[in-house]
Amino acid sequence: MEIEGFDSLAELALDMGWSWNHVTDHLWRQLDTKLWKITHNPWGVLQTVSRDRIEHLLADAY
Prior knowledge:
5 helices
Protein backbone atom coordinates (compact mmCIF):
# COMPACT_ATOMS: atom_id res chain seq x y z
CA MET A 1 0.00 0.00 0.00
CA GLU A 2 1.52 3.33 -1.06
CA ILE A 3 0.22 5.60 1.67
CA GLU A 4 2.64 7.92 3.42
CA GLY A 5 2.92 6.70 7.00
CA PHE A 6 1.50 3.23 6.30
CA ASP A 7 4.85 1.54 6.84
CA SER A 8 5.05 3.04 10.31
CA LEU A 9 1.53 1.80 11.11
CA ALA A 10 2.42 -1.68 9.85
CA GLU A 11 5.59 -1.73 11.94
CA LEU A 12 3.61 -0.65 14.99
CA ALA A 13 0.93 -3.29 14.35
CA LEU A 14 3.53 -6.06 14.08
CA ASP A 15 5.43 -4.95 17.19
CA MET A 16 4.39 -7.40 19.90
CA GLY A 17 4.75 -4.65 22.49
CA TRP A 18 1.09 -3.81 21.91
CA SER A 19 0.13 -7.04 23.67
CA TRP A 20 1.22 -5.62 27.03
CA ASN A 21 1.50 -1.88 26.38
CA HIS A 22 -1.90 -0.45 25.48
CA VAL A 23 -0.80 3.10 24.66
CA THR A 24 -1.75 2.71 20.98
CA ASP A 25 -5.14 1.06 21.56
CA HIS A 26 -6.89 4.35 20.74
CA LEU A 27 -5.23 4.38 17.31
CA TRP A 28 -6.55 0.96 16.33
CA ARG A 29 -9.94 1.78 17.84
CA GLN A 30 -10.13 4.90 15.64
CA LEU A 31 -9.51 2.84 12.54
CA ASP A 32 -12.28 0.31 13.23
CA THR A 33 -14.07 0.45 16.57
CA LYS A 34 -16.15 -2.71 16.11
CA LEU A 35 -13.29 -4.90 14.87
CA TRP A 36 -10.94 -3.62 17.59
CA LYS A 37 -13.54 -4.37 20.26
CA ILE A 38 -13.92 -7.93 18.97
CA THR A 39 -10.30 -8.83 18.21
CA HIS A 40 -7.87 -6.41 19.88
CA ASN A 41 -5.61 -7.33 16.97
CA PRO A 42 -3.81 -4.32 15.41
CA TRP A 43 -2.61 -6.27 12.37
CA GLY A 44 -6.13 -7.57 11.70
CA VAL A 45 -7.54 -4.05 11.94
CA LEU A 46 -4.85 -2.65 9.64
CA GLN A 47 -5.44 -5.38 7.05
CA THR A 48 -9.22 -4.96 7.11
CA VAL A 49 -9.77 -1.20 7.22
CA SER A 50 -10.21 0.73 3.97
CA ARG A 51 -7.45 2.71 2.33
CA ASP A 52 -9.59 5.86 2.66
CA ARG A 53 -9.94 5.35 6.41
CA ILE A 54 -6.17 4.92 6.82
CA GLU A 55 -5.46 8.03 4.75
CA HIS A 56 -8.00 10.03 6.75
CA LEU A 57 -6.50 8.96 10.09
CA LEU A 58 -2.95 9.67 8.93
CA ALA A 59 -3.95 13.08 7.56
CA ASP A 60 -5.43 13.99 10.94
CA ALA A 61 -2.15 12.97 12.61
CA TYR A 62 -0.18 15.67 10.76
